[in-house]
Amino acid sequence: MADSFQIALASFKKRLTQEEQLRFQTTTLDEVKTAILRIQDDQSRRKSMMNLSRVKAFIEAFEQYSNVVEVFLNTSSVLCFIWGPMKFCLQVASSWAESFDTLLDAYQQLAENIPLLEQYGDLFKGNSYMVNVLALFYEDMLDFHRAALRVFSKSNGLARHKALVESQVTILQFEKQQKDYTKAETSISMIQESILRIQEYQREHLNHKKQFEAIEKEDTKRQRLALLDWLASTDPIPDHEFAVSMRADYPSSGNWILQENKIKAWLDPQQLTVPLLWINGIPGAGKTILTSVIIGECMKNSSSSTIFFYCKYDDKQRDNFLAVARAMLSQLLKQNEILLPYLYSECINSHSVSLVSHEMCTKLLEVCFETVSKSERTYLIIDGLDECEPLQRRILLSTLVSIVQKTLYPGMLRLLIVSQNEPDIKRQLRQCSDLRLSSSCNRSDIEVYSRVWAEKIQQKFVVSDDTKTHIIKAVSEGADGMFLYAKLILTNLYGQTFREKLYEELRPGTFPVGFEQAYSRIVCRVYQNPNESERATAERLLGWISCAKRPMRWHEIQAAVSINMDDEDVKFEGASIDQTPGPLPPATSSYSESLWVSRGSPSRGPSATRAQHREISHVRINFEEQKLAVMCLRYLLFQCFDPTTPDNQIHHYVNEGYYAFQEYAIVYWVDHLESLIEQLSPSDLENSEQCDLGSAIAEFYEIFGVQSTKRSDVPSFLEDRCTHLVGSDQLDSLLFLLSHTRKVRAAQDELTEPKELKTILEKVRSYLTKLSKSKNLTIVEKQKLNTYYGAKWIKCPRHACFYFHEGFPDESSRDKHLLRHEKPFLCTDLSCLRKHWGYSTEKELKRHMLLEHPDPAAFGGKFPKVKKEPVRHQCDICGSSYTRSSSLKIHQRRHDGIKPFKCEFPGCTAAFLRKYDRDRHARSTHSEMGNASGSQSPQSTPVPSLP
Fold first, then answer.
1. Residues 214-232: what's their mean pLDDT?
2. pLDDT of residue 796
3. Terminal-residue alpha carbon distance, the chain
4. What is the DSSP letter of 586?
5. Gene3D superfamilies annotated for this entry (predicted)?
6. CA 148, 150, 151: angle at the middle one, nearest 5?
7. Is the sign of the CA dihedral 642, 647, 652, 658 positive or negative?
8. Which H or E element spans position 383?
9. What are the residue ranges spanned by the domains of the chain?
């Protein structure tokens, strides 16, 4: 019989820490009662009593349950694991009114479902099946307290949040099903007949439990998806995997960092003195690779969690506080399910489509890190902080450093910052331990790297061992600790086409000195590539990546390469760039940022920026910007964007990949035109075959322009920007297109103009949505479409939204996301259907809350006082009634003939029922007699004589 109890208890203990087991195993019922009395006394002193009698019924019911169980088990050791968690949860929750109120309600509901069992003692003694019922009760009570401990044993920071407490006690809905177990049969004479029924109840119990778990799992999944949509964070895993892949051929590279004393101290769980560490070094020193080594080491420890992020320059998804905070919250959520109810509550209370508040981000990070750091050690690692603008990194540093320094659990939260030695970062981290990477730190890694590449070069060009040795020595010494320098030099040498070219690059006067020369040599080789096709493609890629208004997805780059302006079609066959031409490395992610020449420069600092960014003479920014603008305009003039195109033809175009570039072109054609304004000359806007931009603007305006637009509709600031273009052929068309498009997009979240393009976009997306659900789509056809449109075909219709181009895996995810746009004000009551389908305005939500979920405390001063019915005092003799008892007493004196108030005037025998009557008699009868005889009535007052 005891086996069922022991199995349930063993499962419960697995979730407890050693400290909790020791604390709970000796707790008694008397200790629980004492704790409740202390809580009550404390609340009484603070004048915040909360009706603790609600827990009385549970204690009484479970005390009887304990007495019955002890008869069978001959021990009370299993019951202490009910009293211990109960005592602990009550003590912790008592600090926060709402959480405490919810917990007391939970115990009250539990008591309603537990019968008083002592009256059925004989029934349980005589039947083993009924003992199984007791075991089921015990298991359910443990499940309830396990859910409660998830909240209250984590962190007081979360225990104060009512939404989280409510989410954990929803198990009561399941507990209600247990009520009928012992009430099934209460008659001893019917025990034998009830055995089968009890067995049926046991099966129902198991089925109900499974159903409840399935519902809970589905609700958890829905909340998690809603949260991830709200956070809309960048996943750092691909960045980490890319950094790790860079070491694939050199597995030992970077491992030396783990032997540094400061790193060992930061990683050591026993060391509490180094919670903050700053690694800094020169640009190109391989800091990101070293960071990946440290992250990998942290992730090996299953008893700790690792939160990390790789910042990227000029990437709005990776270069600011909000982006980093969102990513950290997403990782915390994935690694700590306990945070889900709290974060979801904050999400629906924010009434916003995404997390955009710095203040809220800070609050969420503080609560979440404080929560997880109590139960497990957390390593927080930020690489490339100097990639962020100074203001953003100041906000990020001040927030994270403050969280680490204020944590209640020293050593449980550790922060590692990796960056260049920037003055502002150094100033904010002046009190932190720091590790400076010198040129000698990675010398051995650079030599190993150089040796591997030198062997590749030797095999390709069949050079002597002396040449190989010379390459290794020249690169290792010239790198001066800059790993990126070695990479650029060696890839450039390997990319030469002839041995003579290789020797020419190795000559002392030609061999690059410093990073800038090495980088410039790579770019020069791109433009001097003898293969004209490869050179042209590489130039186009460099231009697009330098001028793109957002990181292009790789399928968009493939589509751009495949666009044929002359034939006005898109031909993927023969135009694939799966193998990136020339010296550019192949793509390793779906975004163009995977190329080292992306706008997120591979190294930081003034020298790197001068060599790599917009000032590069080889990439003519204005020229490439104009080419992109013309390509977007011309592409949108293709036959596939004609609004009169029949649906079957549109479907054909979809299947052939014609719309692979549409989401970029439809949104950003106007941005490219605006970027060009200052650099344009009047000749650039001529409407002639020799002027690509002018003729493209003319044709685009003719097809998609709003002809009713007037010059007076153009804002003055836009005209001022175009004063140097006065007299140009297509100036008016340019101004009308820009002003009308910007005006409409500022007022409309969805793409409504040009209307013709909106129509085509909707038809294309509708067809792709249909295809995504089609069972007739073969694997080959789906892979082909994935090549054209990426893996997520279902998109958000709002052009400013990240998911306009990012997309969703299914319609359900998209529809839930749209609700955040259209009806962002969600009900916070977990049992209300409006927690899924919100309201358009805050006013509507407040009205709903007032009508459907009123707060009783809010109405305390609004209800009028209830007038008491007048109390009637009735005479036993005659039945007369009076509102006051004193009037009844006077009345009863009349019946008894008692007149206690006698006149005090000498010789007067009058008596009265009331003192008032006696005084009135004295004033009216004896005052005149007293005046006449010169005497005074005892009730009179002397009147002073007048002069």
1. 79
2. 86
3. 111
4. P
5. Classic Zinc Finger, P-loop containing nucleotide triphosphate hydrolases
6. 70
7. positive
8. strand 377-383
9. 2-220, 237-437, 440-513, 873-932
Query: pLDDT tens, 660-684?
Result: 888 888 888 888 888 888 888 888 7
Beta bridge partners of 305: 378
Sign of CA dihedral 596, 601, 605, 610: positive
Please give the DSSP secondary-structure letter assigned to residue 471: H
Tokens of 109: 């509901």
For the chain, give the mean pLDDT: 76
Q: Which overall architecture, per CATH, does domain 237-437 show?
A: 3-Layer(aba) Sandwich (3.40)
Tracing tokens 């031409």 back to the chain, one arrives at 581
Q: Please answer whether residues 737 and 702 qualify as being in contact, where contact means their C-beta atoms are separated by less than 8 angstroms.
A: no
Q: Which of 421-425, 503-507, 850-854, 916-920 has the highest mean pLDDT?
A: 421-425
Residues 511-518: contacts with CB within 8 Å, 24+ apart? 511/474, 511/478, 512/478, 512/488, 513/478, 514/485, 514/607, 515/283, 515/284, 515/482, 515/484, 515/485, 515/488, 515/603, 515/607, 515/608, 515/611, 516/607, 516/610, 516/611, 518/485, 518/488, 518/489, 518/492
Helix (H), strand (E) at residue 912: strand 911-912
Considering only CA atoms, which of 665, 676, 650 is closest in space to residue 557? 665
Report which of residues 929 and 437 the model is more confident about. 437
Q: Which of 454-468, 486-500, 536-550, 859-873 has the highest mean pLDDT?
A: 454-468
Pick the CATH number of 873-932 from 3.30.230.70, 3.30.160.60, 3.40.50.2300, 3.40.50.10860: 3.30.160.60
pLDDT at 655: 87
Domains 237-437 and 873-932 share a fold: no
Residue 18 CB coordination number (10 Å): 7
218-227, 720-729, 928-937: which has the minimum mean pLDDT? 928-937
Distance CA 896, CA 737 (A): 108
Which amino acid, one-letter code, is at 83? W
Confidence (pTM): 0.57
Instruction: Cite the DSSP H helix spans in 528-661.
Output: 532-547, 554-562, 606-612, 621-635, 647-655
